[in-house]
Amino acid sequence: MKKVGAYVHIPFCEKKCYYCDFKAFANLEGWIGGYVENLIKEISLYRQRIDVSIDSLYIGGGTPSYINPKYIETIVGEINKFDHALREFTIEANPKSIDRQKLKIYKDLGVTRISLGVQSFDDRVLKNIGRNHNKKIALKDIDLIREFGFDLSFDLMLNLPGQDFSSVKKDLDLVKDLRPDHISWYSLILDKGSRFYALDQKGKLDLMDDDLEVDIFTYLIGRLKDFGLSRYEISNFARKGYESIHNQKYWDNEGYLGLGLASSGFLSNVRYTNVDNFIIYGKMLEKGKLPIKSREFISTKEREKEYVIFKLRKREGINLEEFKNKFGKDFLIAYKKVLRKFKGQNFYNIGDNFYFTDKGMSLSNEFFLEII
């Protein structure tokens, strides 16, 4: 039986942050119950139609910890009707949205890992990006997560309005003291539809220049390594053995179910995306239809391109023998023009694997643009 991951989207939150362009909605408490009922219908439809075993579960959002944990219990109960042996079960949370009761329920449900959206420990920066927590609340919730014995991951961001090198260094000092198992440290992306995108279009967003951002990120990579958090993917760092099992399914082109509003999945070389409208989502499920907006069969050519890009996001890169067995060609010959362009720039290394240096990982988009 094929093993796949499952991603479940909870599109609700207390407050939408200024950088957010995800399908997430604030102040829609009256919609939560009906949405979960429809989500259960979708999960049930997949269980009737495909024969898979679920080995990783990730509940994201939005803010899953914002909703009543009884809904999480219902969702997990339906997921568990699949054949399953979870190697990892992650739920996303935001500071100020968890308490002892919720964490106990999560623990009883089998959650192994909590991904906490910290973003920064600088109260001034947090206010600038529209977060509704502060450093004190984040530290309290981190202690609570540790007390319940969950693996701890948290998100931090770079190039935020009002953030400078000093602010990032203070964040790093706290990381050293807090000893998380995993960190995702992302640079701000100005997604169309976010408040920050609109401000930037008007010239009203004060961000770092590109060179300073690269210098700071290079610095934090070294500091995190000193703390035992090794960079295993472009924006992800972990202690040995705590790399995200579920997220690696995306980078390794393994199968995963996408469940819920606007979710994406990948099964049998078909990538699909769900509708992003509550009403249409519900009506399709009422008719016994999967709420899919678009499907795309990934051709061999596209699979190769995706394989190269996703594999090179990871520290180990591309195993040259595996690439040849999978696609019937020599990677170094097939991509020699691109490799020649970056040769001698400390961009990549070649052994049994072709893989990026830290510089190559940080500037990987330049390489990927040549492939696309």
For the secondary structure, the number of strands is 17
Q: Kindly report the average pLDDT value.
A: 94
| Number of continuous helical runs | 16
Fraction in helix: 40-55%
Spatial order of strands in the largest sheet: 9-10-8-7-6-5-4-1-11
Radius of gyration using CA atoms only: 21 Å
Provide the structure class: alpha/beta
Topology (elements, then pairings):
Blueprint: E1 2-10, E2 12-13, E3 25-26, H1 29-49, E4 52-61, H2 69-79, E5 83-93, H3 100-109, E6 113-119, H4 123-128, H5 135-147, E7 151-158, H6 165-178, E8 182-187, H7 195-201, H8 210-226, E9 230-233, E10 236-238, H9 245-251, E11 256-259, E12 264-267, E13 270-274, H10 278-286, E14 292-297, H11 300-313, E15 318-319, H12 320-327, H13 331-334, H14 336-342, E16 348-350, E17 353-356, H15 358-362, H16 364-371
Parallel strand pairs: 1-4, 1-11, 2-3, 4-5, 5-6, 6-7, 7-8
Antiparallel strand pairs: 8-10, 9-10, 12-13, 13-14, 15-17, 16-17
Helix pairs in contact: 1-2, 1-10, 2-3, 6-8
Commentary on this structure:
The protein is an alpha/beta fold. Helix content is 43%, strand content 24%. The chain contains 16 helices and 17 strands. It has helices at residues 29-49, 69-79, 100-109, 123-128, 135-147, 165-178, 195-201, 210-226, 245-251, 278-286, 300-313, 320-327, 331-334, 336-342, 358-362, 364-371; strands at residues 2-10, 12-13, 25-26, 52-61, 83-93, 113-119, 151-158, 182-187, 230-233, 236-238, 256-259, 264-267, 270-274, 292-297, 318-319, 348-350, 353-356. The protein has a nine-stranded mixed sheet, sandwiched between helices. Helix 6 (165-178) links the parallel strand 7 and strand 8. The longest helix has 21 residues, at 29-49. The radius of gyration is 21 Å and the shape is globular. The model has no long low-confidence stretch (mean pLDDT 94).
